[in-house]
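Late entry, written up from scratch paper. The run itself happened at the end of the previous shift, but nothing got recorded in the book at the time, so transcribing now.
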Amino acid sequence: MHKSKITGLGFEVPENVVKNADLEEIMETSDEWIQTRSGIKERRWATEDLATSDLAISASKKAMEMAGVSSEDIDLVIVGTLSSDYFFPGVSAQLQDKLNLRNIAAFDIKAACSAFVYCLSVGDQFIRSGMAKTALIVGAETQTKLIDKTTRGRDIAVLFGDGAGAAIIQTSDDDSGILSTHLHCQGKDMKNLWMEGPGSAPGVWIHNKQAIAHGRLSPKMNGREVFRNAVKRFPEVIQEAMDENGLTMEDIKLIIPHQANNRISQAVAKRMGIGMDRLYSNIHKYGNTTAASIPIALTEAHQEGKIQKGDHIILAAFGAGYTWASAAIRW
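Output as recorded:
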């Protein structure tokens, strides 16, 4: 069986910068309150004319350019998103079209903030089995179009941003690559972080004024419970990745967590007995971009020279579902 390795990375964010001070104009909040509770200073919000697929296409082209691959080389597309352009089909079908790819396998995965690691894991299995040689893995969101941007929805609105990140993974010809991936879900807690509609469940109204009035078409979060579970699951899944590969924290150059909340990252670092310099963070610039969070952070960390050939890194995520996941990688 062949390991897969990341050969290309790229990301794209909207030009529209929304600072904390801008939010003070549309809801009851403050820059101090937001920074103290999340570490976020600004985020990018997509304008009406910008769709999730637009960001995904741009990020994908950058990853393809870095990897030196053409549209003919790609034989698999997997996209993680909660905010596809349409209810169906998924963004993956649009990428197949807009990137002029062959009639290859293309599908979306809805695993919230863990989606990119889920997508990476599935792509890795395709390459290990020989069913694919070059895969395009994308996390992309314009989820702020779905959020309630009033005081009623501020617990969500102040945290989230839009963006897309992409990776090309290919068959590894040396000892570098994805060493292992670890995926988990606990559905009993799903209503602590969810968006009820549109949907097909009994009592969930689709496309009517009552649904909007009752807030069923915007995300809801029990912040206390999400925080409590996140600071438990992050260390668990990071340790699982290390144990699987006989690694200790001393072997790990960098942990790239989902950028959910800086307080969560601080709590995770404390529990694992490491400094914040070992956990990459860019949440202050982009907020929580859900499925796009990890690939954006991974791309920036690489661009900044924080990852070198031979380094061991761990990607880790926790999100709605609840889902949580990790990937151990030798760069």
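The mean pLDDT is 95.
(Scratch paper discarded after transcription.)
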